[in-house]
Amino acid sequence: MAASCTDNQKSPLEIKDSSSPKLPRAAINDIENHEETGVPLNTAWTFWLDKSVRYSTAAEYEANLKKLYTVNTVQSFWSVYNNIPCVSQLSSRYSYHLMRNERRPIWEDECNRRGGNWRLKCMKYDSPIVWKELLLAAIGEQFCDYMCEGDDVTGLSVSIRDRDDIIQIWNCDAKLAEQSKIVEKVKKLVPNVVFSAIFYKEFQTHQAFEGKK
After folding, report:
1. Is the Cβ–Cβ distance between 40 and 71 less than 8 Å?
2. pTM of the model
């Protein structure tokens, strides 16, 4: 059965012009209240939005990257999640990111440059459930037991494409990726989803990576 978004996850966030995405004032008030009273997360997590442009430089990519909100509690996470468009409502070339603390989803940043990510291609009708299950696993620190000691999941991304969508799981140390069991965990989370491709890529081996040492 195809996954669907919850009824209350509509599209109050304006993303037609990604230069100025804004949550509605009522949602921000709700988030701020939950930040004071909600159940704390182990670390803060930040939602980001971008629209990719083919062959863009790191600087051009950064210019299109927009921070949505940083959450510190379970309740504020849900307040943001339920007030941004569902993955199935995003246009092609848009991406959501959820990054640990306030790190930016940019390969060349000092906190990311030694890492990489697992890339999983899935059918578009599976994207919403895969994205939701991975988000919950991340904020609940469910990946910890599947990572090599000294490594960590630092973020998640979902990129909307014309055919299959791309899910990415970011880690901080590419040299430890082979010892990870992260794919095993993903398959446990979404056992009925068939991924058309799964592979790992170190950021510094990407042809588009800038700032090589």
Report:
1. no
2. 0.88
